[in-house]
Amino acid sequence: MPGRRGPLAHRQDDHDYQHYQQRDHDHAHHCAGIPAGGLGSRVVLSAHGSPSDSWAATLALTGFHYSGVSKSLSVTGNPGSYFWSNGYAWGTVQVGEGGKGKEAKITVLSGDLALEHFSAGGGKGDFKKGNVVKEGQDLVISLK
């Protein structure tokens, strides 16, 4: 019959699924900067590979959190450059040492970011109520 498959088709489907699941898992680790050996017990990824796994790993490693209610953004205090997205805007945050100590530079690459509170590690920066960082703008924050 046309369209009918043999008895080994199910086994081949299982093999293909496992192959693509492992490939996606390895790709998520690579994109998140996780070494091939993993991070031990510090991070647990789903046994069912999905696109959300790579986003979850990114969030876990960068410490990213945005609240539209309090208009606050936070990331890890570890030096580096991190991607952020809040659903309305996206860009990067660079955390490192500046001329006056620890600094963060928020760059909005698309959209507008309502931001009144920022934190990176233990350092914080607060802004006037209604503060908005526009697309194409940078905001440099001295972390206190």
What would your notes on this structure say?
With 144 residues, this protein is α+β, with helices and mostly antiparallel strands. The protein has 2 domains: 6-62, no CATH class; 63-144, no CATH class. 24% of the residues lie in helices and 34% in strands. It has helices at 9-31, 51-62; strands spanning 65-67, 72-75, 80-85, 90-98, 101-110, 113-114, 117-120, 123-126, 132-133, 138-142. Strands 1-2-7-8 form a 4-stranded mixed sheet, with no helix packed on it. α1 packs parallel to α2 (51-62). It is globular, with a radius of gyration of 21 Å.
Short description:
This protein is α+β, with helices and mostly antiparallel strands.
List the helices and strands and how they pair.
Blueprint: H1 9-31, H2 51-62, E1 65-67, E2 72-75, E3 80-85, E4 90-98, E5 101-110, E6 113-114, E7 117-120, E8 123-126, E9 132-133, E10 138-142
Parallel strand pairs: 2-7
Antiparallel strand pairs: 1-2, 3-4, 4-5, 5-10, 6-9, 7-8
Key attributes of the depicted protein:
globular; four-stranded mixed sheet; four-stranded antiparallel sheet; 10 strands; alpha+beta; single chain; 2 helices; 144 residues
Shape, please?
globular
What is the tally of beta strands? 10
Strand content: 25-35%
**Strands in their spatial order, largest beta sheet:** 1-2-7-8
Query: Can you give the helix content as a percent range?
Result: 10-25%
Uncertain regions: pLDDT < 50 for 5+ in a row? 27-47
What's the mean pLDDT score?
A: 76
Calculate the terminal CA-CA distance, rounded to whole Å.
73 Å
Q: H/E order of the elements?
A: HHEEEEEEEEEE
Characterize the largest beta sheet: strand count, sense, and whether it forms a barrel: 4 strands, mixed
Radius of gyration: 21 Å
Indicate how many domains the architecture comprises. Answer: 2
Number of helices: 2
Helix/strand-derived class? alpha+beta
